[in-house]
Specification:
Order of helices and strands: EEEHEEHEHHHHEHEHEEHHEEEEHH
Number of helices: 12
Structural class: alpha/beta
CATH architecture of the largest domain: 3-Layer(aba) Sandwich
Helix content: 25-40%
CATH superfamily of the largest domain: P-loop containing nucleotide triphosphate hydrolases
Bound molecules: adenosine-5'-diphosphate, iron/sulfur cluster, magnesium ion
CATH topology of the largest domain: Rossmann fold
Largest sheet: 8 strands, mixed
Distance between the termini: 37 Å
Radius of gyration: 22 Å
Strand order of the largest sheet: 6-7-8-3-9-10-14-13
Length: about 375
């Protein structure tokens, strides 16, 4: 059996927007041809600016909304058109953790009821007493106390409410959990605790995680792989250390460089990403990043770059016409773990900043000839 627990191939989700009696609706391409695979036991992080299609993708993967086109499998079974019993089983095996724990919890239900509810559907044979026991167990798994079962969501802090959300997600015994910005509504001081809890649960329960974030720094230490999205498409993917040490796509460079770095005791952001993300109703032709990319050339405005091997580590791929040329200008970088940004990433930011400022670090033209061994 394949190690992939979840796969997607050519997923798209289009929305019709702005239509009226007299006006034809326009097509908004929220997700536009995304393929991915998630291996059992790993944590895949999906990152990108707000509006790039992360939530739409997550909702499709969870089968909360159907794809416009494309295929998905879960544990080898085709799920893009799952219905009835197959869908009920999916609801048990894959669970969702929402961004805002408060709005996703019914304020009038006790915590015991909220966490016990999924058990009524997915473990109907449990007696009321067994269910209470299971709820107590779930609460302690997420660091809450059994007596919390009698309280209401508003009696808890944001972090605790997210723990309640996680306990509820765990109730059906899922094998895959998708978290849509599970900590971005929380205080910075609490974010790490919830992230650590998720990582700990993943290891203890053998879960697979897909975590969506707009801030990669937050989930860096728990992720195995990263997928970077821009305007409905994947622009880069690879092992997390590779992405941090050797980002290959200009957008990834910009995105990573927005992470605050501590320097001389102060925190500073490096290069902000310039310009607005174009509308997914009218995405630019060619490379979708061309309107903001400091390296863009004529070909970028007409030809769509495909995801291809970035040739640094297995599974590292990026969608840019000038991968080699841009990389050639950045000094070689050793991959490093640990906190903060690596030297290699810094070098790339410097390169990006220079290009953004209009200094001539654009890819040389014509492209250098590749030497074949
Ligand atoms: N139900 C919907 N109807 C119309 N447009 C939508 C709908 N859901 C999302 N969108 C649009 O799709 C794009 C991607 O949104 P979303 O997936 O929420 O992005 P992200 O989670 O990365 O911020 C946005 O332009 C958003 O406005
Ligand atoms: S160089 Fe061209 S293809 Fe590469 S990211 Fe920039 S605009 Fe896209
Ligand atoms: Mg979102």
């Amino acid at each position: 059996m394949s190690d992939d627990i979840l796969t997607a191939h050519g997923l798209t989700r289009h929305f019709a927007v702005g239509g009226s009696l007299l006006k034809k609706p326009k097509v908004l391409r929220a997700v536009d041809g995304v393929s991915l695979s998630v291996r059992r036991g790993e944590t895949l992080a999906i990152v990108g600016e707000s509006g790039c299609g992360k939530s739409t993708l997550a909702r499709m993967l969870m089968r909360l909304i159907p794809p416009t086109s494309g295929e998905m499998t879960f544990e080898g079974r085709q799920i893009d058109h799952a219905r009835g019993r197959a869908l009920t089983e999916l609801r048990r095996d894959m669970q969702f953790i929402f961004q805002d724990p408060f709005s996703s919890l019914n304020p009038r239900a006790t915590v015991g009821r909220l966490v016990g509810e999924p058990l009524e559907t997915h473990a109907p044979d449990l007696s009321a007493r067994e269910r209470r026991g299971r709820v107590a167990e779930l609460l302690s798994q997420v660091g809450l106390r059994p007596e919390h079962a009698d309280r209401y969501p508003h009696e808890f802090s944001g972090g605790q409410r997210q723990r309640i959300g996680i306990a509820r997600a765990l109730a059906s015994g899922p094998r895959l959990i998708v978290g849509d910005e599970p900590v971005s509504a929380l205080d910075v001081s609490v974010q790490a605790q919830v992230i650590n809890l998720l990582a700990d649960l993943r290891d203890r329960l053998g879960l697979t995680l897909v975590v969506i974030a707009h801030d990669l720094a937050v989930i860096r230490h728990m992720s195995d792989r990263v997928m970077v999205m821009y305007l409905g498409r994947v622009v880069e993917e690879g092992p997390v250390d590779e992405i941090f040490a050797r980002p290959r796509h200009p957008y990834t460079m910009a995105l990573l460089s927005a992470i605050p770095v501590a320097e001389h005791g102060r925190t500073r952001h490096q290069i902000p990403l310039t310009g607005e993300m174009p509308s997914p109703v009218d995405p630019p032709p060619g490379c979708r990043f061309n309107t903001r990319c400091p390296f863009a050339r004529e070909a970028c405005r007409t030809d769509v770059p495909e995801l291809r091997d970035a040739a640094t580590a297995p599974g590292h791929r990026a969608a840019c016409h000038f991968l080699e040329e841009i990389a050639e200008q950045a000094p070689p970088a050793p991959a490093q773990g640990g906190a903060g940004l690596t030297e290699g990433a810094r070098a790339r930011f410097a390169l990006y900043a220079e290009a953004s400022a209009g200094t001539p670090t654009r890819p040389r033209s014509p492209a250098p000839q590749e030497t074949t061994p």
